[in-house]
UniProtKB/TrEMBL annotation:
Descriptive protein name: Alpha/beta fold hydrolase
Domain AB hydrolase-1: 74-305
Organism: Parvularcula maris
UniProt-listed InterPro entries: AB_hydrolase_1, AB_hydrolase_fold
GO molecular function, one term: hydrolase activity
Gene3D superfamilies: alpha/beta hydrolase
Phylogenetic classification of the source organism: Bacteria, Pseudomonadati, Pseudomonadota, Alphaproteobacteria, Parvularculales
Length: 319
């Protein structure tokens, strides 16, 4: 079970489903009833007015662009099982000055499953590079949370010419709890949850992501559950391909200035990984947030936006 914590820890709130599902099974066995599989009351999936679509390297992605066309470009990469809406509050605070671009990762949101199953972290990083080229983004600042953070730094290491600088928000990086270069088995409860995100499982799982329970609104539950629909098999395949080899050598070659943000109440990826990542990178600075969980851009978007703006303002023109 510790291995399950590690692999799902990087990838978001699915880790909690293991324990929620176990508890539901135990209670219903005692009561002689079937597990509660109540459907979420969700709005129908539909495109928002700002949604755009593009064909990129054999996949069709959903993306959004906001902010001035002549502003510095920010590319935002969300975490596992989430969607580009995870950045809504932050984008609203940054797009007065910056051109903010975000897309649903392969196998997520309204981008949906990838026919080529490019779900391994290295493949996701390569695809992010294809997105930059396809959308003609000129050396963006790449901002990633959790799985998105892992994609961001791997992209910067593999294709440094594409990335101006990095903002990594609780990124996946170092191995922990026994997960290294080998994938971990996926418990049936996790697979069930990823394919059928019923309200009790989703609510309990999100509780592991946010330190502030007020973030878990009915609207949040509906949106996350809706965006997970149709992607269950892609999520499971992502876990099957997910590994955490020691990143020290790769991180050490990243020359881009990097801001690392970590919530001190992160129950998904241990906050102790923050200093490890920062120390491994030549030009990284770490900021920690007291009382904040795994997705700071949703809990304290104003603070995150302020720290990002201060970081970017401090960069030299050549950086």
């Amino acid at each position: 079970m510790r291995i399950v914590f590690a692999i799902l820890g990087l990838l978001g709130f699915a880790v909690a489903a293991v324990f929620v599902w176990t508890g539901l099974q135990q209670r219903t066995q005692n009561a002689g009833a079937a597990p509660d599989q109540t459907e979420l009351v969700l709005p129908p999936a539909q495109d928002e007015p700002a949604d755009l679509y593009a064909d990129v390297a054999g996949a069709r992605i959903r993306y959004r662009v906001s902010g001035p066309e002549d502003g510095p470009t920010l590319l935002l990469l969300h975490g596992f099982t989430f969607s580009l809406e995870s950045w809504d509050a932050l984008a609203d605070r940054l797009d007065e000055r910056y051109r903010v671009v975000r897309y649903d990762l392969l196998g997520h949101g309204l981008t949906g499953p990838d026919p080529q199953e490019r779900y391994a972290p290295g493949d996701r990083a390569s695809f992010a590079g294809e997105v930059i080229r396809a959308l003609a983004l000129e050396q963006p600042v790449v901002i990633g949370n959790s799985l998105g953070g892992l994609i961001a730094w791997r992209l910067a290491a593999a294709e440094p010419e594409l990335v101006r600088s990095l903002v990594l928000i609780a990124p996946g990086a170092f191995p922990f709890n026994g997960v290294t270069e080998e994938p971990a088995p996926i418990p049936p409860g996790v697979a069930f949850f990823l394919r059928s995100p019923s309200e009790p499982l989703l609510r309990a799982s999100l509780a592991s992501v946010y330190a502030d329970p007020a973030v878990i609104t009915e609207q949040k539950l509906a949106l996350v559950g809706e965006r997970m629909k149709g992607n269950g098999d892609a999520f499971i395949r992502s876990l099957e391909l997910f590994t955490l080899p020691d990143p020290s050598d790769t991180l050490s070659v990243i020359e881009q200035p990097t801001l690392i943000i970590w919530g001190e109440e992160d129950r998904i990826i241990p906050p102790m990984h923050g200093p490890l990542v920062a120390d491994a990178m030549p030009k990284a600075r770490l900021i920690t947030y007291q009382g904040i969980g795994h997705v700071p851009q949703e809990e304290v978007p104003g603070r995150v936006a302020g720290d990002i703006e201060a970081f970017l303002e401090g960069l030299e023109p050549s950086e």
